[in-house]
Amino acid sequence: MTTRYIPDAGRLYGPEFARDPQAVYAELRRRYGPVAPVEIAPGIAAHLVLGYQAAVDVLTDAGGAWSKDSRDWMATLPETPEAAGAVGMLGYRSNALFADGAEHARYRKAIIDCFGMVQPHKLRQLVIEVSDSLIARFAANGEADLAGDFARPIPLKIFNRLFGRPDSDSDALISALSDLMEADGEAGARGLDAFSRYLGELVAAKYAERGDDLTSWLIDHPAGLSQEELIWQLVLVVAASYEPTASLISNAVSRMVSDDRYYSSLTNGALSTYDALLEALRAEPAMANYGPYFVRQPLHFHGTWIRPAELVLVSYAGANTEPTNLPDELRSDGGAYLGFGAGPHRCPVSDPAMLIAMTAIERLTSHLCDLELTVPREELSWRPGPFHRSLAHLPVRFTPIRPDQPGESPWAAQPPSSSIPSAETFPARSAGYVTSAPWSS
After folding, report:
1. Helix, strand or coil for residue 263?
2. Are 295 and 306 in contact (CB under 8 A)?
3. Other C-beta atoms within 10 Å of 339: how many?
4. What's the pTM value of the predicted model, to 2 decimals?
5. Which residues of 361-386 are buried (b: 16+ CB within 10 A; e: fewer)?
6. I need a labelling partner for 346 at 20 to 30 A (CA). Which of 58, 315, 359, 399 fits?
């Protein structure tokens, strides 16, 4: 797909889009309606689904018109750094995101079964440990960047542990995924290479010695994943867990500390942490434009002709905020949101993601109850890129906490000794937050 037939394509990249994507969506709706032509990088075109009903029609795919297989689209791409960056996020892999039918069902069941082995109360305790350890690093300073110092490390530290790897692997993984999510040519390709190396080392270690962890369970699952399939499921799990969870945390916190409906102080307010998470999922979903789809046959869809090998992206942010001129209680969609997708490809681990985000935010606000932004929310900077809605920085100030201060603090909170291992007590085989998979007993 090229840009030659797309006049005035909306650019989903660059500082203007990062600063105010809703203005871009509004202009695209005005010009084109529920499906609009866009560029996700220079020379890389797509159809962007902005209408709520159009998005639901794609995601639920009642007529079987849509496919997730991106290989025909990849064959049309030029050999440019921009194309390489796009492939980092949209290139075909043999995993649940890019599969259809029985193959998709097989991959998805393996993921759901293995995540089902993680006990929620043990996961919550792990989030408490990780959150408190991060808060302890900056609590005495009186200021922090909650995006880089708190939100981004949390999901990777947690999934490192759940995968059976030590905390020392987290920094390299954070760097790799940050590059991958930018999809800006060289950075995206570099991130994909680093991410692939990390996962290759993880899989090799677990084939050599199993543990009570997600990686080992996937290896032994009755789905019989090949080593290549295993790696690509892990690519999906890590990428889909990192950016959405990290940005959900920072986007929700940025709302909570700048809106008196949540707090006049961080210990009271009309709305809860859960309300903030739901509002962020709807108004600023972490994966703002993603859900790659392709038509099997030429299709006239909500006023636009779409041909095979043309990329279609679902704008969760655009669809969720589509103007209706009706209050939520009278909308035909009931004020629903698509933050976790819908239909057969809806995020299979949305409950763990919400548990992680809610627990992390509750630990943060319980320790630092007078958080406030150092700049107005409208002046916060956002990371560039077509796919995510992610704060570059979330600068806050608060009353410092001293290590010798009485009462509960991030230094004093310790997990039960029989529960969650620290990085120093790795390997994860000894961890009490997981149990043996039924198919490996």
Report:
1. coil
2. yes
3. 25
4. 0.86
5. bbbbbbbbeebebeeeeeebebbbbb
6. 359
